[in-house]
Structure formats: C-alpha cells, structure tokens
Amino acid sequence: MYTWLKHPSILGYDVAGEVVEVGKDVTRFQVGDRVVGFAVGTDEKVNDPAEGAFQEYVVLRPDLTSPVPSSLSYEAASVIPLGLSTAAAGLFQEDTLALHLPSLSPKPTNQTLIVWGGSTSVGCNAIQLGVAAGYEVFTTCSPSNFDLVRRLGASKAFDYRSKSVVPDMINAMKGKTAAGALTMGDGAAEACMQILAKCKGNKFVAMATGPLLKPEPKSLVLLRTAVYFVSWMVAYKIKGLFNGVKSNFIFSTSVTHNGVGKAVFADFLPKALENGIFVASPEPFVVGKGLEAIQEAFSIQEKGVSAKKVVVSL
Fold first, then answer.
1. Is the N or the C terminus of the chain less surrounded, counting Cβ atoms within 10 Å?
2. 207 and 140 housed in the same domain
3. Residue range(s) defining the domain that contains residue 198
C-alpha cells in the first residue's frame, strides 16, 4: 500500500505534546502550547519522515493541529487524530458522504447516519462528528459498549453480533431519511448495503476497513491478498448497482489536501474540546514509555482491544 516509502522511514499518525518551535508563517501556535496533531508523513504527496509520529520531535501542519485544554492529558489527546481524520474523510469529503461540516451549534438535518463499529477509534469520532454536524446517529457495537456510544451522542445502539441486527436496523430506519453509512469491521459494508437498500435518502457506504482474508495466507501473501481484495471489490460494486447503493474507500490522509482537515482540526476541534462538546475517545490504554515500547504496543493492538486505543508515552 505504501510503495512510495523509502527505508528508513518513520511511521505513525497520532501525536500530542508541547510545541518547541514554530515556522515563520505559523500564527495559530507559539512555543509552549499544548497540542494534538495528525502526522501525515506517510501520505504519498507528503512522503516526509520528519512528519511521522513515532519520534520525539515531530513536524506537524498547522491545519491538522489543534490546541488542547489543560484538563486533557497528552495520553488522552493522542487517541484523537487518526480516528478523527478517518471519520472526517468518510463523512465530509465530496467523494464520500459529503455531509454538512460539524459546528458548535449544529442545525438538525432530520437525517440519520449509520456508523457501523461505534466503539472503535474511528467510530467514537464519527458519532461525535455526525452529531456535531446535525445528524441523528445509529450505531453498532457490543452491548458492553452501549453506554459509551450513547454518551458520545448515538441515539440508538445495536448489537453487531445479533443475527437480527440487519432487519432490526432496517425496521428502526422506517420513516427516516438516511445520510449514508460509515463502516468499520469485517462484514460491515455488506450489512450496511442491505440496510441502505431498504431506506430512502443517501444510499452511500463509506468504508474505513476492507475485507479480511481468513485464514491469513502463509505464502504469496501480497498476491493472494490483492486478488481477494480486488475480487471482493468488484463483487461489492456489482451488488451495489443492483441495490442502488454506491460506495468508496476512505484514506485518512486525504483530508490534508481538500480542506476537510482544516475544517475539523482548526475550525471545529479547538473550541469543541474546550467546551466539552467533543471528548477524546476511546479511552487511552498506555502500554509503555519510550520509542522502544512501540513494537510491543503493536503486538498488543494485534491481539485486539475493545473501546480503547493503545498509547505509548514518550
């Protein structure tokens, strides 16, 4: 996926910390400010290791950076950037759901947004952004996380493991106008296509995750994964034609180049965090300190966490 990167490269998107230096044209920040930012060094158009998060000093772009209140720890703030950017790409870009941008005083749109995977990092941010943009939000998660997604603003939560989740959501959407769906997780895109096919409104699925090849191949990994992904995508698009449902994948760093990043990180997030309209979620799970802890953090992430985001403190 990242064929343009050259070794050695520095990965990582999420970062929070103190400003130690500002560029000559930067006016929004000064040395000593507490900030959270989206590091986009791996973006193809950026391709700059200085802008990768996994280092002690990170170059951030002002339009992808937000001040954080003193009440919010760096560890808690660091859960925001990638989830927020991915959600924003799916909700607000013209080639995805193209919803209204978030604001501190949103006007009701009388439309309902479906967020499949509401307790994930992307889902927690998508729920809050959807509500801040004036949309009612229906979401899925484990019953143990129902309270979490409701606190974030979802009006209804459904158990994604339930055998009746699709008909239950179709029934809940009766009389409502769909704003589209944002999906995370295996099988999410297929389920949301079934739901939107029965709804009126925006029949569009913005996909934050792709299909999973199970079991994972042990040989010819890249080739077999690519063949599986392409064949799945073709089949999904064909099903969409028959069901009148359009779709597109999300790439988080695209918000760098189209104004969505600025609208969220510069225009919305600072006041939203300060006023408590937007909260850092999911809960940070601090697993170590120092750059040497990052590999272990990935190992923990691979095993899976629920309604938490793995964080390393530097």
1. N
2. yes
3. 83-253
Query: Does residue 101 sit in the same domain as residue 57?
Result: no
Domain co-membership, 229 together with 264: no
| Residues 207, 108 share a domain | yes
For residues 307 and 141, give the distance between their C-alpha atoms in angstroms, rounded to a whole number.
9
Q: What percent of the chain has pLDDT over 90?
A: 89
- 290 & 155 share domain: no
Domain co-membership, 96 together with 225: yes
Question: Per the domain annotation, does 280 fall within a domain?
Answer: yes
Say whether both 233 and 259 belong to one domain. no
SS3 letters across the chain: CCCCCCCCCCCCCEEEEECCCCCCCCCCCCCCCEEEEECCCCCCCCCCHHHCCCCCCCCCCHHHEEECCCCCCHHHHCCCHHHHHHHHHHHHCCCCCCCCCCCCCCCCCCCEEEEECCCCHHHHHHHHHHHHCCCEEEEEECHHHHHHHHHCCCCEEEECCCCCHHHHHHHHCCCCEEEEEEECCCCHHHHHHHHHHCCEECCEEEECCCCCCCCCCCCCHHHHHHHHHHHHHHHHHHHHHHHCCEEEECCHHHHHCCCHHHHHHCCCHHHHHHHCCCCCCCEEEEEEECHHHHHHHHHHHHHCCCCEEEEEEC
Rounded-to-integer distance, Cα 196 and Cα 280, Å: 30
* pLDDT tens-digit series, residues 136-190: 999 999 999 999 999 999 999 999 999 999 999 999 999 999 999 999 998 999 9
Number of domains in the chain: 2
- Is 6 inside a domain boundary? no
